[in-house]
């Protein structure tokens, strides 16, 4: 095949293609690059060298400086987020199974109920949760659960259990319906069909949902901001905020703090990113591909 | 055992402005312990009918009774599928992919809460009969098509169902093992006397398994009878085509010597009296013969001289296509036990009384 | 048997109804005059809503929220589409997934942490302006000037969320029948033609999903405006959510509830149709 005149050489084309992508990728990486290199700069260096220039003499001094105030929140987040995300996802999956059965039964009532519940869990997933600020704070306070793990867990469940149900509803539809029908004819009880068939068969979907919930719960800034006041109960994203003063006053520890706060979700993203992506896709369509 | 009665069952699927009538006023009484076959072309509504019997779908109209007990009525499930005691083999088997063959077969038994020993005994028994005892600890993906089909059958049988539903049970099998699978199902059905409904578009399944059969075309149940009776006197040409190979011809009705004939080019086929002037003829392949002889005895009637156009071979017989000398396009296929040379003239015979006539 | 299934769903149903309760609670108190000055609220009908209309902050913050959401939808979609096309036509599967990760990683980091880093990057002396100056490009004042403050916020949000759009377009493209693309390739159609004639017409779902999610996610964004502005009172960055938080901290409870109800209503208007006519339909489709 001889290349026609006027046609760009394919190698050149491919190189330009790559170059354009790389330019965007580099721009997109600037913040994380800044976070990493500036976390290793000394006090003076942070203020005097440009943010994008790596430190001439790297130091872990900032990490040591923030560690004492971040270790407890980090621990709090770990203790709270993993079990909360797991329970929310698991209980949500059970509900997803119920919704599946409901939308496949034939009575008019059940299709109405299923639409209603589906709208409700979608609302809980997507609502600006800050809008529930006053009643939520009041509810948790009335239960005497302000500044406790239980109070935070309870509040997280309100939003992330429906998220789990919504995502799992989508993943469950990937199971061939005949299999579930066969199990019904075999007189499997709902619980048995769920934990013998639906749960194992949608395990990849469950992991995606779990990871999505872990990352979302971990990064939730507002709910812990409202429901905790004592330093001992702080979660990590809120604590990070204390490394900035009002009106854009900058502190050199910001980077190290941001790095510590992002470690866990970034680590999960790096190692289990494809599950996170599948969770996001399911949030949209349950679509295939990617 | 259970008798299944459908009264005026109609199923309409509505989807995006489009309506599909999958079943249209189906009435049938399937006797207790009977092996019933349902034959129909693709998309006729066979699976839909099966799903309604199983309770996995509901009729838009009509009623379904098991032993005179109403189980489903217009848009309403009276008895849910799990309470109908149905064993079903799905068109795609629907084995549980995350369980071994043993656990697949055990699944319905676990719901019955029987002892482990009893369970093991029943599973061994049924897998002995079906010849899958040696693959019980394999996962479905590790089994051959035939083994998967038998595991699905074992899972359906092990719970002693009152009704056995088989949806195209042999369509995914090699032709080689299909016959033994058919024989197996027939034998088990015979022994256990379970009311069995087998759906297929392959008449061979129906002949080998069903005592009685119904034919569904475009959602309508058009004929119910013994398979052999449907074969020899189908109500329409579609039914005739469905249940066996057929030579189809268009003929002009003529009368001579007080006898009625259908004339197709140079051929004259003896038929019974009909009102129409033009008819459609259907003749089973085994009811046609070609020969060099002038007469083949009383059973066979001479139709006319024919020329051999194509001669080919299929499963033990020679397949000869002949045409009338005056028209090269009126092709008639005849099965014979020896080859005939292309271009020769032969005598064409039809078995007396075997010409099917459709208006 | 149905009972057992229902029992399994009880926890989720309980928490979902609790959410409904919180929403209705807001609605109820938005019709009262509850505040620091009125600790014993009484029913005042639409008066609280009416009073909001006279508050400059309310309309400004609402318009900020809407501007931010619409801006994110428009630019997020454009960038997402561009990225998805660039990645789709990349022959190499492995490279594609690496680039994909590098472009969507901001989704996994807390917005609070992101905002802090961007605060530094927006520093007019040593932030990205240092680089822009080196390259002889114009240097905006970012957060230091009222006119560029809001666009700066937009940059952060779009940087963070363009990946969402990328994922959905890429998923939609991947879902397009390969043979269609191959047929077009054989006809020597160039990638742009394939994009506009084959991929885009088949990516309606991608567009709907990406727009709905970009809208919903940016509408509820809190920490970037809160942290970039240094507090809830900076009028140039105040969004509805921040304004509501401000009303709450100053104990204008009824007004905060009214703002919360308006926010919820706007989100609901997007969520319910999306859930019932989008997600639920697509679920049945498979
Ligand atoms: N869930 C459904 N929604 C809409 N239409 C349907 C549905 N199920 C079946 N149909 C339609 O109803 C008709 C009958 O389908 P059915 O599956 O019963 O046919 P069948 O006789 O089993 O065909 P096959 O031999 O191909 O299995 C078809 O036109 C089919 O498209
Ligand atoms: Mg079928």
Helices and strands, with pairings:
The complex is a heterotrimer of chains A (about 290), B (about 350) and C (about 290).
Chain A: H1 10-38, H2 43-48, H3 61-103, H4 108-126, H5 133-142, H6 149-172, H7 177-185, H8 190-201, H9 203-219, H10 222-227, H11 236-241, H12 254-284
Chain B: E1 4-15, E2 18-30, E3 35-39, H1 46-54, E4 61-66, E5 69-73, E6 76-77, E7 86-89, H2 101-110, H3 116-130, H4 145-157, E8 163-167, H5 175-192, E9 195-200, H6 203-209, E10 212-217, E11 220-225, H7 227-232, H8 237-243, E12 246-256, E13 259-264, E14 267-271, E15 278-284, E16 288-291, E17 300-314, E18 317-323, E19 332-336, E20 345-351, E21 356-358
Parallel strand pairs in B: 3-9, 3-10, 7-8, 8-9
Antiparallel strand pairs in B: 1-2, 1-4, 4-5, 5-6, 10-11, 12-13, 12-15, 13-14, 15-21, 16-20, 17-18, 17-20, 18-19
Chain C: H1 2-29, H2 47-53, H3 56-88, H4 93-104, H5 111-121, H6 128-134, H7 146-175, H8 178-186, H9 191-199, H10 204-219, H11 223-228, H12 240-249, H13 253-285
Helix pairs in contact in C: 1-13, 2-13, 3-7, 3-10, 3-12, 7-10, 8-9, 10-13, 12-13
The complex binds adenosine-5'-triphosphate (ATP) and magnesium ion.
Magnesium ion (MG) binds near residues 46, 47, 91 and 167 of chain B.
CATH architecture of the largest domain in chain A: Orthogonal Bundle
Alpha-carbon distance between the two ends of chain B: 42 Å
Report the structural category of chain B. Answer: alpha+beta
Q: Give the termini separation of chain A.
A: 33 Å
Which ions and ligands are bound to the chains?
adenosine-5'-triphosphate, magnesium ion
The tally of domains of chain A stands at: 2
The shape of chain B, in one word, is elongated
Low-confidence stretches of chain A: none
Biggest sheet architecture of chain B: 6 strands, mixed
Classified in CATH, the superfamily of the largest domain in chain A is MetI-like
Radius of gyration of chain A (Å): 24 Å
Biggest sheet details of chain A: none
């Amino acid at each position: 095949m001889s290349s026609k005149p006027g046609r760009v050489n394919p190698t050149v084309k491919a190189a330009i293609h790559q170059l354009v992508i790389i330019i965007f990728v580099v721009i997109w990486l600037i913040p994380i690059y800044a976070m990493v290199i500036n976390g290793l700069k000394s006090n003076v260096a942070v203020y005097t060298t440009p943010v994008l220039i790596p430190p001439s003499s790297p130091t872990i001094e900032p990490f040591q400086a923030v560690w004492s105030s971040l270790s407890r929140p980090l621990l709090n987040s770990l203790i709270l987020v993993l079990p909360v995300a797991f329970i929310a996802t698991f209980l949500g999956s059970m509900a997803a199974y119920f919704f599946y059965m409901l939308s496949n039964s034939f009575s008019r009532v059940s299709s109405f109920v299923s639409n209603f519940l589906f709208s409700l869990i979608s609302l809980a997933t997507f609502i600006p949760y800050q809008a529930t600020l006053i009643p939520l704070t009041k509810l948790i306070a009335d239960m005497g659960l302000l500044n406790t793990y239980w109070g935070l867990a309870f509040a997280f469940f309100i939003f992330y259990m429906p998220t789990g149900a919504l995502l799992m509803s989508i993943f469950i539809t990937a199971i061939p319906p005949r299999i579930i029908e066969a199990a019904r004819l075999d007189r499997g009880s709902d619980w048995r069909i769920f934990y013998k068939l639906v749960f194992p068969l949608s395990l990849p979907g469950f992991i995606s949902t779990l990871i999505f919930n872990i990352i979302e719960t971990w990064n939730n800034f507002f709910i812990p901001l409202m429901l905790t006041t004592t330093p001992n109960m702080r979660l990590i994203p809120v604590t990070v905020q204390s490394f900035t003063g009002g009106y854009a006053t900058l502190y050199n520890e910001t980077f190290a703090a941001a790095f510590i706060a992002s470690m866990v979700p970034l680590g999960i993203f790096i190692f289990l990113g494809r599950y996170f992506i599948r969770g996001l896709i399911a949030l949209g369509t349950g679509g295939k591909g990617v | 055992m259970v008798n299944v009665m459908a009264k005026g069952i109609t199923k309409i699927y509505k989807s995006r402005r489009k309506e599909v009538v999958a079943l249209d006023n189906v009435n049938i009484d399937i006797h207790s312990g009977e092996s019933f076959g349902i034959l129909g072309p693709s998309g006729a509504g066979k699976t839909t009918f099966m799903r309604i019997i199983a309770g996995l779908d509901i009729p838009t109209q009509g009623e379904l009774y098991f032993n005179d007990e109403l189980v489903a009525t217009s848009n309403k499930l009276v008895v849910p599928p799990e309470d109908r005691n149905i064993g079903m083999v799905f068109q795609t088997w629907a084995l549980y992919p995350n369980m071994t063959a043993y656990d697949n077969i055990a699944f319905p038994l676990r719901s019955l809460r029987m002892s482990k020993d009893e369970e093991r005994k029943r599973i061994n028994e049924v897998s002995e009969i079906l010849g899958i005892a040696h693959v019980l600890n394999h996962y479905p993906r590790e089994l051959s098509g035939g083994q998967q089909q038998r595991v699905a059958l074992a899972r359906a049988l092990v719970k002693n169902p009152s009704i056995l539903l088989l949806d195209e049970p042999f369509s995914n099998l090699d032709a080689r093992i299909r016959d033994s699978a058919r024989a197996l199902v027939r034998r088990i059905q015979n022994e256990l006397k379970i009311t069995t409904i087998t759906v297929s578009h392959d008449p061979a399944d129906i002949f080998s398994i069903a005592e009685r059969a119904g034919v569904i075309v475009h959602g309508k149940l058009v004929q119910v009878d013994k398979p052999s009776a449907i074969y020899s006197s189908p109500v329409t040409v579609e039914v005739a085509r469905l249940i066996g190979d057929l030579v189809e011809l268009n003929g002009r009705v003529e009368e001579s010597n007080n006898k009625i004939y259908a004339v197709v080019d140079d051929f004259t086929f003896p038929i019974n009296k009909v009102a129409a002037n033009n008819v459609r003829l259907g003749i089973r392949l085994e009811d046609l013969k070609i020969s060099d002889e002038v007469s083949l005895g009383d059973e066979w009637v001479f139709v006319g001289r024919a020329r051999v156009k194509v001669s080919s071979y299929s499963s033990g017989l020679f397949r000869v296509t002949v045409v009338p000398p005056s028209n090269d396009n009126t092709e008639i296929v005849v099965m014979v036990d020896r080859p005939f040379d292309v271009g020769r003239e032969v005598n064409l015979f039809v078995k007396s009384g075997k010409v099917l006539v459709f208006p | 048997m149905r009972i057992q299934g229902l029992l399994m769903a009880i926890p989720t149903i309980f928490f979902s109804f609790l959410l409904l309760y919180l929403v209705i609670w807001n609605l109820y108190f938005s019709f009262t005059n509850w505040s620091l000055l009125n600790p014993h609220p009484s029913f005042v009908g639409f008066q609280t809503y009416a009073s909001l209309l006279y508050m400059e902050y309310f309309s400004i913050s609402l318009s900020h929220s809407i501007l931010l959401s619409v801006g994110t939808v428009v630019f997020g979609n454009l960038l997402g589409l561009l990225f998805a096309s660039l990645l789709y036509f990349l022959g190499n599967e492995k490279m594609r997934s690496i680039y994909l990760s590098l472009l969507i990683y901001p989704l996994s980091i807390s917005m609070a942490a992101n905002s802090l880093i961007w605060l530094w990057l927006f520093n007019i002396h040593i932030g990205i302006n240092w680089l822009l100056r080196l390259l002889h490009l114009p240097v905006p004042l970012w957060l230091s000037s009222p006119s560029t403050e809001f666009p700066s916020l937009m940059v952060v949000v779009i940087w963070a969320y363009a990946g969402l759009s990328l994922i959905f377009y890429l998923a939609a493209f991947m879902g397009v029948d390969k043979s269609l693309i191959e047929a077009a390739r054989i006809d020597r159609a160039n990638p742009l033609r394939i994009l506009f004639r084959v991929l885009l017409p088949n990516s309606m779902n991608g567009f709907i999903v990406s727009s709905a999610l970009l809208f919903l996610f940016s509408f509820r964004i809190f920490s970037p405006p809160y942290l970039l502005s240094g507090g809830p009172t900076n009028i140039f960055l105040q969004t509805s959510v921040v304004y509501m938080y401000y009303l709450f901290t100053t104990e204008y409870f009824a007004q905060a509830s009214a703002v919360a109800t308006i926010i919820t209503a706007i989100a609901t208007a997007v969520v319910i149709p999306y859930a019932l006519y989008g997600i639920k339909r697509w679920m049945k489709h498979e």
